[in-house]
Amino acid sequence: MHAAYDDISLAYKIVHGELTVKKHAEEFTYLNLLGDVHGQKVLDLACGEGRFSRTIKRQGASQVVGVDISASMIELARQAESEQPLGTTYIHSDVAALGTIGIFDTVSAAFLFNYAASKEVLLTLCRTAYSNLKPGGKLVASVNATPLYPPLHNQATRKYGYLVHSPSPLREGDAVEYAFFTGSHAIRLLNVHWSRATYEWALCEAGFSACSWQSPTVSQQGLEQHGHEFWRDFLLEPNFICLAACRT
Ligand SMILES: C[S@@+](CC[C@H](N)C(=O)[O-])C[C@H]1O[C@@H](n2cnc3c(N)ncnc32)[C@H](O)[C@@H]1O
């Protein structure tokens, strides 16, 4: 099984480790939405190299299991675990083929759903998230920003280390390209655009109750370090949005 991220796993880890928007906006917004994970069993779908898995474990989760379709990403995650053991474990699998592997308090899915190649696959991914949650459990996810922020196609986001390319007008299932770059590395990611209505349909069909959307927010530290004006263009055309839903 060869996955798209097998070829870019290390560059992904380096680029995302360096981007200001990752730390001060994406991780900040995502972890705030996850809330207190102390003592919780957390399933981290599309865990990549395990950055959220490790952070969630450090924040006191009792168990964190990461799942990713890319063998290279899982290798990096296991390597980080062996270099600094925290107790995270990883499974190499397509989430669509994972089935139910446990009963978790929280399912995290950072940038999973925007890789669903069809609405049917999107529904399968949502059903997998649902079936691994306890009743009352919470799903927290991030996806590319286009469901709430149609691309503006200007160059203003270059200063944050990313550019967005997509067809205009954007239709369901269209590819949205994100180019991320730092001084030393560049990567190109292809996401799939699904509308807000399609995400809400898939979550509802899978059994989740009301889904809430969360626009990016910037940490106090990010505001102090760079100033409010620096973040203006990012907040007009962010690269991600988050959502939360509950298993009833
Ligand atoms: C942008 S990365 C995000 C990684 C991690 N969640 C993070 O936020 O750093 C997207 C990840 O989704 C994984 N992925 C995409 N489709 C998947 C699927 N169907 N099942 C499991 N992992 C998948 C990719 O291999 C990649 O590691």
Topology:
Elements lengths: L8 H10 L1 H15 L6 E5 L5 H8 L4 E6 L2 H13 L5 E4 L11 E7 L8 H13 L1 E12 L17 E4 L9 E7 L4 E7 L3 H11 L5 E3 L5 H7 L5 H5 L3 E7 L2
Parallel strand pairs: 1-2, 1-4, 2-3, 4-5
Antiparallel strand pairs: 5-10, 6-7, 7-8, 9-10
This protein binds S-adenosylmethionine.
Please report which band the strand proportion falls in: under 5%, 5-15%, 15-25%, 25-35%, 35-45% or over 45%. 25-35%
Average pLDDT level: 95
Structural class: alpha/beta
Give the name of the CATH superfamily: Vaccinia Virus protein VP39
List keywords for this structure.
248 residues; alpha/beta; Rossmann fold; 7-stranded mixed β-sheet; 3-stranded antiparallel β-sheet; 8 helices; 10 strands; 33% helix; globular; binds S-adenosylmethionine
Structure report:
With 248 residues, the protein is of the alpha/beta class. The protein has a single domain (4-146, 194-246), classed as 3-Layer(aba) Sandwich (Rossmann fold). The protein has 8 helices and 10 strands. It has helices spanning 9-18, 20-34, 51-58, 71-83, 119-131, 196-206, 220-226, 232-236, and strands at residues 41-45, 63-68, 89-92, 104-110, 133-144, 162-165, 175-181, 186-192, 212-214, 240-246. It has a 7-stranded mixed β-sheet with strand order 3-2-1-4-5-10-9. Strand 1, helix 3 and strand 2 (63-68) form a beta-alpha-beta unit. Helix 5 crosses helix 6 (196-206). The site of S-adenosylmethionine has 19 residues, from helix 3 and strand 2.
